[in-house]
Each structure stands twice: as C-alpha cells, then as structure tokens.
Amino acid sequence: MAERALFENFLSCHVCSETFRDPVSLSCSHSFCSSCLQKFWEQTTNKNCPICKRKSSKDLPNVNFTLKELADTFAQRQEDKSSETVKKKRKVDVFCNDHQKEPELFCVDEQRAVCPVCDFSLHQSHKVVPVEEAVSDLKEQLKSDLKSLQDKRNKYKQVEETYNEVIQHSKKQLLSTERQIRAEFNKLQQFLKEEEESRLAALREEEEQKGRTISREMKMIEEQISSLSDSICAVEEELQKHSVPFLSSYKDTQSRARAQSSVSDPQLVSGALIDVAKHLGNLSFRVWETMKEKVHFSPVILDPNTANRWLYLSDDLTSVRNGDTKQQLPDNPERNTKYPTVFGSEGFSSGKHSWEVEVGDHPDWTVGLVKESVDRKGECSGSPKYGIWRLKYDSGKYTNCVGQTGTVKKSLQRIRVQLDYDRGEVSFYDPEDMTHICTYRDTFTEKLFPYFNIGNAGDAKTSDIKICQTEI
C-alpha cells in the first residue's frame, strides 16, 4: 500500500489529480498532463507553473516520454487490478438471498434496489427504473456535488493566497513603520526615548496580535481545504464503485459532500493589516506638552490600507500623489481598487470638523467626505446617492455632485472642507477669504471619512496634494 501511494503521488497530475496523460515537465521540474497545463494557462492567461508560479521558458513544453512510459505502465497495472477486483466482487455481490442474483430494478421513491421476483409487487405504485439508469442519474448528481466541492476548495485557496500577500505586506509595513517612528523620535530630545520605545512596543504587539489572528484564520482555511480535499477524494472513490456497493454507500458520501458544499464561502477578515495610521498619526502632537515648539498637527491622517495601488503617500501620511507605476499591495477589504482614491484614517459620527487641502497647481482632484460603507471595489458615482459628498476640479472648473459649476474669483491653491455632522452639512470654501463654493445638506446615518481622489498630474507643477492644519 505504501509503495502504491508513493507511485500515485509521483505519477499524478497536480491539476486533475489523475495519473499523467502525455506528461510535460517545466523548467522548474514540476510535471503535468499536457492538456491540463494548456487549459490552466488558458484560464489564467499566463504561462506560470500551477504550483510554484514560476514563468515557463517554453510556450509548448515537450512530452516527457520517460515519465509517460512510467505513468502508462502504472495506469495499466491499476486497471488490471481493478478488473480483477470487479470480477471477484461480481461473484459474491448479490441482492436477494432467495434468488442469488444482482438487482435489475431500483425504486426511486424508496431509494433502494428491488428484486424483480419476490419484491417487485410491493413497489407497483412507486417509480421503478432499471439499476443502470438509477446509477447513471445518481452519479450525475454526485458529479455535480463534486464540482461544488472543487469550486469551494478553489475559493478557499484564493483566500489563502490573499492572506499570504497580507502577511508579506504586513511585514513590510512593520519595517517601514518602525523606520518612520524612529526617524520621528530622533528629532526629539533624549528624554523622549521612553515614549519612542513604548510606541515601538505597541507596534510590535499589534503585529504579533494580528499575526496570531491571521494564523488562526489560515489554520481554519487549511483545515477547511483539507476537509474538502478528503470529501473530494471520498466522492471520487465512490464514483469508481460498482452498482451495488455504490448504492449501499453513496448516500453518506453525498450527504457529507452537500453539507460541506453548503458551508459559507471564506471571507477575509477586515483589519488584518497593521493600523499604521494609529501609530504614525499625530504622533508628535501626542507629546506636544513637552515638545510643543516642534509639533506639527494634521487634522486628517491618510489611511494607507485604503489607498489605491496607483497612489503614493508621504511618510507622515499627510500628502498623496498619483504615481507612474502600480504598487504590489494586497487586496484587503479596506482598499480602494477601482479609482485612485484614499480615505482618512479616522471617521466622524458627530460634531463639527474642518480641514484644508493644499491642491496647488494639480489639474485633476476631488476632495470631500464619504460614508464608511461606500463601495470600494466596483463602479460608484460620486454623489450623495452613493454616499459621497465632494468638490471636483477638472479642466479648470470646480463642480459639485450634480455637475453644477462653483463660482470662484481665481484658481484656488487651497480648499477648506467643513463638516457639521449633526446639522447634516458639508461645505467647501476658499480659505483665503472664506468665499463659499458649494454646500450639501443631507441626513447622515453612518460614520463619514475624509475622501481624496487624485488624477494623473501630467505636466502639472505640483503633483501632490497635502492636508493642512485649520481650526473651525
């Protein structure tokens, strides 16, 4: 048995899980059925290895004839053994003790085989079909269950892959955040050393805590994948059985398969990334009582975990620009993926709040507020209907959500955003002389976050927009 298992593992395709058919070997030494590899490449639209993701150096790898010969020999032996086993079972598999013969009929109503001699009269009012027809129908049902299990496993694997990306990015966040914290604290005098170390400890503690959370989630994912794989194997083995053994055991296998197929799809846990804004946001302001003359306070801190992959944030998380290259960032639930957008790290659910945005000569920008539940992944119109209250600048015009143009005396370098949550008002002003641009009046029912959308700067003199301090 151990030898057989070893050969099955060595001679099995990792795509279809069956013995190789016309196997090909990639430069990374992994092998697959030729047809399976081609189908996988067509689905993924790349030429990467299905196992290690390494790019193949050949578009059409040649058949590995040595491996093919081994696989064909092994498959023929397994087929011969299977035939012998079936013949032996046919000699002993009987259904009716009185008539020592295999069943020919199956009662659909009672879901069991019927002896046509002594038992058929009891089923005259039932739906009775030939065993071959029943077996064919039931196997089709089980194949459908198998497909559901395989799809479920693929979804778990996708989530597992995203978690691996989160882990890697979280480690990068740890290193980057630690570097910025040290740089900030190096500006302070020695007596602030204890404050620095305490915040580093909090950062590491959060990384460890979230690492444990991710590990726990991944352990559950791995257990589900293992369980689904076991069920898939059980279903596949069930489908290989002959009529009577299949009829006597398929129900339990089917019940287990359907139960696992009905399990809800895996979901990424929000907040898996390190809350960088919590550690870096207003860091100096928190110790302003002792170093007041060196403190700069920003009313809004940008949240890098929400930033689109085209956006680059400054180290202090107070300015943002649209870059020339797309960053490799995990698709965590908080991240905006459809538009070049980033949110503030803290939301508002009451009170009055105000901040200014230095837009400079940037030719394409949008600022305002957005509700917490706004769609971050798909199409979303910039209007209150979709939870966005904003002012947009494009082609030299300042427009509100319904396309109305705001009246300004000159091109503005700064924009003031004011929120009165309790009165349901969002207003935009020229901070130089407090000229009113536009106001929205609405009823807010959930937390609102500062909102920034930055188009491609092109040849503009200023490519960043920056949050500035203001008081209401």
From TrEMBL:
InterPro entries (alphabetical): B30.2/SPRY, B30.2/SPRY_sf, Butyrophylin_SPRY, ConA-like_dom_sf, PRY, SPRY_dom, TRIM/RBCC, Znf-RING_euk
| PROSITE patterns given in the database record | B302_SPRY, ZF_BBOX, ZF_RING_1, ZF_RING_2
Q: Which residues form the B30.2/SPRY domain?
A: 280-472
Q: Which Pfam families does the entry mention?
A: PRY, SPRY, zf-B_box, zf-RING_UBOX
Domain RING-type residues, every copy: 13-53
Any GO molecular function: zinc ion binding
Alphabetically sorted, this entry's keywords are: Coiled coil, Metal-binding, Zinc, Zinc-finger
Q: Where is the B box-type domain?
A: 91-131
Identify the Gene3D superfamilies for this entry: 2.60.120.920, Classic Zinc Finger, Zinc/RING finger domain, C3HC4 (zinc finger)
Coiled coil feature spans: 132-169, 193-224
Q: What is this protein called?
A: Nuclear factor 7, brain-like
Source organism of the structure:
Astatotilapia calliptera (Eastern happy)
User: Lineage in the entry?
Assistant: Eukaryota, Metazoa, Chordata, Craniata, Vertebrata
